[in-house]
Design brief:
147 residues; globular; 5 helices; alpha/beta; 27% helix; 8 strands; ParB/Sulfiredoxin domain-containing protein
Length: 147
């Protein structure tokens, strides 16, 4: 688990907005981060690898943990269309999962855990009956200092 402090965060979870043909928009992360998440090959420290994503959060202290398997009982809240409408992308990840690869989603923990990245990956894991692999970002607990 890594601890990271966000300063000068935007507090807006969008990086690059890509216009969709239907008039909507989706968030697109930098290509190097998308590749790392798609392949499950995340470099340490995670705080550095995920910096572009972390800078979208409000200022504060966070913990970054994983990649690890998500608790299958914890319902996730999608931040994009659910189920994902790109069936070819879900099929791609299903094939990767069946062959032993573990693409990584990114989840913001909280009362209602949010899928920040990886809707297609999570849909593929669900379709394959495998617990999803994810990096979980959560608020860091306040430091305890004995008096």
């Amino acid at each position: 688990m890594e601890r990271v402090t966000v300063t000068s965060g935007t507090g807006v979870l969008e990086l690059n907005r890509v216009l969709e043909p239907n008039g909507g928009a989706r968030v697109e992360l930098p290509q190097s981060l998308r590749i790392a998440l798609a392949t499950g090959q995340l470099r340490r420290p995670l705080a550095k690898t995920l910096r572009d994503l972390l800078d979208l959060l409000v200022d504060g202290c966070y913990q970054v943990d994983g990649p690890a398997r998500l608790d299958s009982d914890e319902p996730l809240v999608p931040t994009a269309t659910w189920p994902p409408d790109d069936e070819a992308r879900v099929a791609y990840y299903r094939t990767a999962i069946r062959t032993g690869h573990r693409p990584v989603a990114v989840v913001l923990s909280g009362t209602r855990p949010l899928i920040l990245d990886g809707h297609h990956k999570i849909a593929a894991y669900e379709a394959e009956g495998v617990r999803a692999s994810a990096v979980v970002i959560s608020e860091a607990p306040a430091q305890y200092s004995p008096s």
